[in-house]
Amino acid sequence: MLISSAEPTEERCRADAALIETLRGIAGGDNVLTAAIDIEPYAFDGTAAMKQRPGCVVLPREASQVGPIVKAVTTAGVPLVTRGSGTGLSGGSVPLDGCVVLGLNHLDRILGIDTANLTIRVEPGVITMRVDQDAAKHGLFYPPDPGSQKISTIGGNVAENSGGLRGLKYGVTRDYVMGLRVVLPSGEEVWLGNQCVKDVAGYSLKDLFVGSEGTLGVVTEVLLRLLPRPAARKTMVATFAQIESAAQAVSDIIARKIVPCTVEFLDQTTIECVEDFAHLGLPTDAAALLLLESDGHPAVVEEESEAMRQALVDNGATDVQTAQTEEEAEKLRTARRAAFSALARVSPTTILEDVTVPRSELAAMVKFCAECAERHGLRIGTFGHMGDGNLHPTFLTDERNEEEMRRVHKALEEIVTETLRRGGTITGEHGVGLAKKPFLRQQLGDASYELLRTVKRSLDPAGLLNPGKVFDS
Amino acid sequence: MPDEKADGLNLLQTMDYSVVQQCMHCGLCLPTCPTYVETGRERSSPRGRIALMRSVADGDLPLSRDFAEEMDYCVGCLACQTACPAGVEYASLLEMARASGEEAGLLDSPMRRIYRWLGLRLLMTRPWLLRLVARGVAIQQIPWVRKAMYRLGIMWLAPPTLRKLEPTAPPIDPPFSDARIAEVERPPADWWTGPPRARVAVLTGCVQDISFARVNRATVDVLLAAGCEVVTPRNQNCCGSLHAHNGDLEAARDMARRTLDLFDGAGFGGGSNLLASLDAVISNSGGCGSHLRHYANLLKDDPSYAERAHAWDEKVCDVQEFVASLVGNRPLAVGSNEAPMSRLEQVLASQSVSHANGKKPRVTYDASCHLCHGQKVVAQPVSLLKGLPDTEFVPLAESDWCCGAAGVYTITQPEQAGKLLARKMGNVRAAAPDVIATANPGCMHQLNMACQGDPELAHVRVAHPMELLAEACHSTS
Lengths: 473, 477
Known about the structure:
The complex is a heterodimer of chains A (about 475) and B (about 475).
Chain A: H1 17-27, E1 32-33, H2 36-39, E2 56-58, H3 66-75, E3 80-83, E4 100-103, E5 110-114, E6 119-122, H4 128-137, E7 140-141, H5 154-160, H6 167-170, E8 177-183, E9 189-193, H7 205-209, E10 218-225, E11 227-228, E12 232-240, H8 243-255, E13 262-267, H9 268-278, E14 288-296, H10 298-314, E15 317-322, H11 326-337, H12 339-343, E16 349-352, H13 362-375, E17 379-385, E18 390-397, H14 402-421, H15 437-459
Parallel strand pairs in A: 2-4, 3-4
Antiparallel strand pairs in A: 1-2, 5-6, 6-10, 7-11, 8-9, 8-10, 12-14, 12-15, 13-14, 13-17, 16-18, 17-18
Helix pairs in contact in A: 1-3, 8-10, 8-13, 13-14
Chain B: H1 11-14, H2 17-21, H3 34-39, H4 46-58, H5 65-73, H6 79-83, H7 90-103, H8 110-123, H9 127-141, H10 143-151, H11 160-165, H12 177-180, E1 184-185, E2 198-202, H13 207-211, H14 213-225, E3 228-231, H15 241-245, H16 249-262, E4 280-283, H17 286-292, H18 295-298, H19 306-315, E5 316-318, H20 319-328, H21 343-349, E6 362-365, H22 369-374, H23 379-386, E7 392-393, H24 409-412, H25 414-431, E8 435-437, H26 441-452, E9 461-463, H27 465-474
Parallel strand pairs in B: 2-3, 2-4, 4-5, 6-7, 6-8, 8-9
Antiparallel strand pairs in B: 1-3
C-alpha cells in the first residue's frame, strides 16, 4: 500500500516542455532530468511506502541559479519540491505528480569558517558530517548529529530542524542557525540573521524558515554557530533487565541535575538487530540498553560519568561498562545510529515513529508502546533519544499485507493520542511531512493550526512550495 | 521499448521480490559509491540502482538499453554492501540486473557478441585452450618479439579493440601452476614437525594461473610454513565469477558445477570425496574468492548440486583469513610444553628484533574490494603484513576505495576506471611506499602498470601478501 502525496488541483499545473526548456536555459541541459530512468530514483525519500514519480528533476550547480529556477517554476504554476539527499523520514521530499524536484546536492561548498566569531558558512548541499569534520580541523564543534549525518545535507537539516544523539545537551539544528539565505516563492532572495550573538531587530524571521519543511522557501546558504570542541569524552553502556528501569534511570539522571551529552536507548528487539549487523558483543538478552556519553572538560567528564554510573546502579542497572578507546566509543555510536536500518533487516517494511514526551513520562510511554503493539499483534522495536524524551517506536511489517497495515495505523493512532494526552508531540525531529499530517490539527488545536495557514498563505499564496506537506493550505 | 522473455517476464520480475524490497532508502550507501560521488546522480548510486531494478520488477519501467548501461556503469565494488545496515544483497541484485540486460540483448552488437563468446564461452570454459593461448601470448610479450611484430606491421592485422588492449594485457608468466606445484605437498622437516596441522586445497584460478603462478606457489609455501598439507588439483577451470559479474549466469552455473565436480573426484588420496577430507579450500584472489563462497545461491535451483554447494561454501576461505586463524590464536609461551612453532610463526614472531641502522622498506596494503566488502576479510591481511620482519608497515588512505580494476571495468568503462585509478594513485603517492601488497590479480596488475608508468613510483614493487610472507619464510636469516 503506497500512500500517494497530494493530488494536483486546478490551480496547480504539471511541468511541461516549455518550463523544462526554461529550466535547461538556467541550469544547463545536462542538469535537468526528464527521462523516466533518470527521474524514477527521485520518487521517494527515506520514508517507507511512499513513492511518487516527479515531472522533472533540476540539479543546479550554482546557488545563484536557485532564485531564477524557483521563479520560473512558480510563475508556471507548477509545484516545487526541494530535496537534499532524500533521507528524510516523514515524506517531506517525496515529489508530487507532475512537480519539479529541485535537488541541491551539487551545492556542496563550504564557503568559509570564521575562527574569530566561531561561525561557518555553507551551501545547503554540504553533508552534515562534513561541517563537523571541517570545524574539528580548527578545534571547533558542530553538535547536531542526526543518525543520517554521513549523507544528510545541512539544507535538509534546516528544513526539518533535525536533532540527533547530542540533542539532550546541545540542542538541535535551530539552535545553531545564525543566518539563512532564503529564496521565496516569488524567486526573490532574502538574507536573514547575522553573526551577532544577540539581535532582536524585527521578527525572528529565520526561525520561521527553520523546520518549515520546504513549504515557505528554499534555503541557499546557511550561517552556522560553532562551539569550542570539548576536550574529553566518555562513553558508557548500561544494561537493564526491564525497560521501565532504564526509563526510570534516565528520568532520575535528569532529576539529579546531570545533563550528559547523550543518553540513547535500545530495547531488546533493537539490540538483537544491531548486534546482528555490527557484532559488537552487545548483550542480546538484556531488556534494555542505554548508551550514555559525557563530554567537556576532563575533570567534569570524570565527575559526571561517576554520578551517572551511580544513578544507573541505583536504578537497577545489571551492568555498566565504559568504552576504553575512541574506536570502541565510535563503534557504539555507529551501532546506535544504525539502529533504524538494522531493524529494517527483519521485515520488508519498517515504519518509524517519532513521538516525544516530557522526560517524566518516559517510562510510562515506553510501556504503552509495547502494550499497544502486543494488543494489535504487531512486532515493534523501540529505540531513541531517551535523554530528551524522543522515542522511536518502530513497526516491523510488510506493506503488501494490507490487513496488517490497517492494524499498524490503528496502533499509531493510539500511540499518538496517548502521547498528546501526556503533553507530548507527534514529532520530535523527523518533521510532519506527509506521515504525521493526519495528526497535526489534533496536537495544535484549531486556533494554532489556523495560524499556520495564515503564515503559509501570506508567503506562498499560490501554495506551490511543497504543497500538501505538513498541512493543507 | 521493453525487451522481454517469451513468457513476458524478465529475470528481475521473476526473482525473489523481498531482496529488492529490503532497501529502505536510508542512503548510507551513497557516500561510499564511486559512481555517485562522481556524478551526484541518484540513478548512479546503489540506492538508485535498486530503485530502478524495483521499478523494472514492478513493471513501472521498461528494461532498456539505458538501464543496461547504468548497471554496467556500476563498479561492482560492493562498498555499498558493507555500508548497508539493512543487509541488502546488492551483489546478487546486480548480477540479476546484468543478466536481465544480457538476456534481452540490450547492449548487443555483433563485435560485442563475438568478444563475449570468445572470452566467456570459448576461452574461459576450456582450461587447456586458455593455457595454450596464454603460451602464445607469452611469446608475443617477449620484448624483441613484440617490437618486431610492431615493426613488421603484424600487430595491425589484429582487430582495433585487441590492438588497443594489447599494451594493458597482464604479462603472462609461464610456467603455470601445475608445473610449479606438486599435486600433494607436505611441509619440509625444518618448517614443521609432526602430523600436518590442517589439510587444505589451493585454487589456482585462471588469470592468476597464467599471469601470477608465482603467487600460487607462494600461497602453497606459506600454507606449508604454517604446518598444512596442501593438495592442488590439476588443470583447474575458471570459477565462473567473470561470467556471473558480466551477466552470463548460465555459464557461471556451469563453471560452478565443474568446480564442484573437480573436488568430488575419487582417488585423490583423500578417500572417495576430496572435499570432505579437507579442512578448507583456499582462494588467494579477492574477487574470485568472493564469488566462490556463494555457490549455494548460484546453484540453489539445481537439486543435484544445491547441497554440495552448501558444503563447498562453508569450506572456501581466503588464504589470509585461514592463515591468520591458524597462527593468530597461538599463545607464544616461552619454554612451555607446546609443540615448536611452525616456520611461519617463527617468522612473524621475529618482528621483535629491532633494526638499528638502515631504512626498512615501507610496505602498504591496498584492500581488494571483493576481499574486504565481499568476503569481509579486513584485519587479517594487515595483521599478517605488520608481522613481516624487516619492514615498516604504512597505512594507505582510502585503502578500501576501488582502484578501478574491478574485473573487466577498465575495458567496459575506461573513463571512470581511469578516474578511480587517479584517486588511488594520489593516495599511494601520499603513502610513499616501497612495496604495495594487494590480494587480487586484477588489482595487482592495475597498480603495477600505474606505478611503472609514473616516474615517482616506478621503483615500487606490487606483490601479493603471500609472496612477501613466502619470501620471509624462505629467507635464512
